[in-house]
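job 3f2a | input accepted
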Amino acid sequence: MLVKTKAIVISSIKYQEKSLIVKCFTQSDGLKSYFVRDAFSSRKSNQKIAYFQPLSILEIEAVHKNKGTLENFKEIKLAIPFQTIHNDVIKSTIVMFLSEMLHFSIQEEEKNEPLFMFLETALTWFDTHDEIANFHLIFLLETSKYLGFYPDISDVNLPYFEMSEGIFTPFHGIRSLTRHESNLFKKLLDLKFENDHKSFHTTERQILIKILIDFYTLHLDSFKKPKSLDVLKEVFS
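job 3f2a | predicted structure (237 res):
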């Protein structure tokens, strides 16, 4: 079936000498993997390697056989040509980390348009703003809404956040954050991209990223700690 849709690049892996296997989150069909023959050859001007940088937003025309095998692109172009994301060291490091997080988080090959629209809106905002020190923290917390495990904030005034149940409780349990960690988490819950001020110190940001990775690990099967986490820490140290 021939499909025209937007797609966000989640990952790309070199195959043999000149080809790529590209995993995309599509607006029309959710997660799809594509084989890009001769991606490193200048002869394939419509399949430039530059298109497949982490979290690039594409407009694609593709043949979807829907048989669990690799699909094939027919046409590709950038839907939103980013101006800063892939040229700024800090932004490109954040994007590399977030693409890894999404790689291990989005597993279902089914349409999830609300998640797609959130990702597209968030990345567009990221490309056009400079106050981005907490972007990855807000992004991951907001993404959990669309993956089905956003924290229950009905008892947010209670002192401890219990990670496995995703609720605030009056008592400190085995899976609970400390009071200090819970307070940091509450502060993060109040942040949005547009009011992303320098709300956290470097050490607090590192505490929060560990909390979020642990939170994802508890709620998603087969989730793995991103290898790019150490690079992210280095950039923000």
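job 3f2a | Helices lie at 89-105, 113-127, 135-147, 179-189, 202-219, 229-235.
job 3f2a | closed
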